[in-house]
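Support request, priority: normal
Reporter: lab tech (M.K.)
Component: structure prediction queue

Hi team, I submitted a job for ATP-binding cassette domain-containing protein from Extibacter muris yesterday, and the status page still shows it as pending. I've pasted the exact input below so you can check whether something in the sequence is tripping the parser. The sequence length should be 244 residues. Please let me know if I need to resubmit or if it's stuck on your end.
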Amino acid sequence: MLEVKNLTFKVDENGVERSIVKDISFQVEDGEMLVITGPNGGGKSSLAKVLMGIEDADEGRIVLDGEDITDYDISHRADAGIGFAFQQPPRFKGMTVDKLLSLAAGRPLTEPECCKMLSGVGLCAREYIKREVDATLSGGEMKRLEIATVLAKPHKLCIFDEPEAGIDLWSFSMLVQQFERIHKKKEESLILISHQERIIQMADRIMVIEDGKIGAIGTRDEILPNLLSEGQCACMDRQQEGGN
Ligand SMILES: Nc1ncnc2c1ncn2[C@@H]1O[C@H](COP(=O)(O)OP(=O)(O)OP(=O)(O)O)[C@@H](O)[C@H]1O
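Reply from support: The job had stalled in the queue. We restarted it manually and it finished. Here are the results:
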């Protein structure tokens, strides 16, 4: 179980201190899927980065399965069992796709294993396996590869920041199926940051982050009707057509 207690994250904006995440407390149970949504700039990605150790909390504690990981750096948190997929994945010039997947898995992977992982996120494996993870990969290809690296080994908790961003409808459906499969097994907790109705609908619980604070948190049945009536989630089909 993840326990987040009174988490605050501040940035220095031209010499002025600004709280981006403000005294946030919540829990994610084992095997639970929590979807975090809310308006742009509300603090969702910042919260995720603080959870992964990419940014340091100014106040509060983060406890994973009873272990206080607040002072752990990013690699120590990864060892503790947290996986993270960035909203905008980094590129690694000189690294091939199969090597990156093996690194993520923590062991050398065979070609069929790499192929299976890539197929799971809608990437045609033969075409990609020896490609370099550099600027020649499109944004959508990078995004799917990044998600495959997180899925390459078991974690206690996986955090995906807007997994739908820049992904075509077909690959999006495969991704949703992957999340459903992981969720069904109940072996890993999932935090998905998303604006997508189809992802939000999978959630056990939904947390709305607004202005750095929790605007609402509750079960899907408690929160989703309000989000839909306020038009706060996006439909993938409409988004593909250029709307929101
Ligand atoms: N390092 C930083 N320095 C200054 N401001 C920052 C920093 N990181 C984030 N912010 C600001 O904090 C606010 C929250 O950003 P964040 O990316 O967490 O929002 P978000 O809810 O994930 O937004 P979106 O839905 O658009 O992805 C924004 O106003 C952003 O500009």
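The domain at 2-91+159-240 is CATH 3.40.50.300 (Rossmann fold). DSSP finds ten helices and twelve strands in the chain. Let us know if anything else looks off. Ticket resolved.
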